Amino acid sequence: MKRKIVPAAIAAAVAVAIGGAYAAQQGNSKENDAVAVTAAKIDLTQAIASAEQHVGGKAAKAEYERDKGRWVFDVEVVKGQVVMDVKVDPASGKVIAATEDKVDHDDDNDNDRKG
């Protein structure tokens, strides 16, 4: 009976050790966006102004996030009934992408939804 317990205990200990090392490594590679924004050359207000001017509308939401491996300001701009997702370069303040936001994926995470 003891022979069966020892290999299982060793396997469990190894799994915990590997999992902990992996989690520690992942924790070091991720950066909090609130801290990361301090490296941006422009501020959020400038990014919003750039996005609004590009689209010709009003910003409804803005955040600093990773997109395709790099940090960008992501600004949702509303013009009429169209919502545009605008990516602004944090170094230059230039718009690097603007696409129509067909569905707001963040709606699934809203706490005030009834259902």
Task: List the keywords.
single chain, 115 residues, alpha+beta, Nuclear Transport Factor 2, Chain: A, four-stranded antiparallel β-sheet, 4 strands, 38% helix
Short description:
This protein has helices at residues 2-29, 33-36, 44-55; strands spanning 58-67, 70-79, 82-88, 95-100.
Account of the 3D structure:
The chain is of the alpha+beta class and 115 residues long. Helices cover 38% and strands 29% of the residues. The chain has helices at residues 2-29, 33-36, 44-55, and strands at 58-67, 70-79, 82-88, 95-100. The relative contact order is 0.13. Mean pLDDT is 78; it is low at 11-28 and 110-115.
What is the domain tally? Answer: 2
Helix percentage range: 25-40%
The gyration radius over C-alpha positions equals 22 Å
**Strand runs, count:** 4
CATH architecture of the largest domain: Roll
Which secondary-structure class do the elements indicate? alpha+beta
- Element order: H for helix, E for strand: HHHEEEE
Report the principal-axis shape: globular
Distance between the termini: 52 Å
CATH topology of the largest domain: Nuclear Transport Factor 2, Chain: A
Main β-sheet: number of strands, strand sense, barrel status?
A: 4 strands, antiparallel
Overall pLDDT, averaged? Answer: 78
Task: Report the sheet-strand fraction.
Answer: 25-35%
The side-by-side strand order for the widest beta sheet comes to: 1-2-3-4
Low-pLDDT stretches: 11-28, 110-115
- Top-tier CATH class of the largest domain: Alpha Beta
Oligomer: single chain
Note the total helix count. Answer: 3
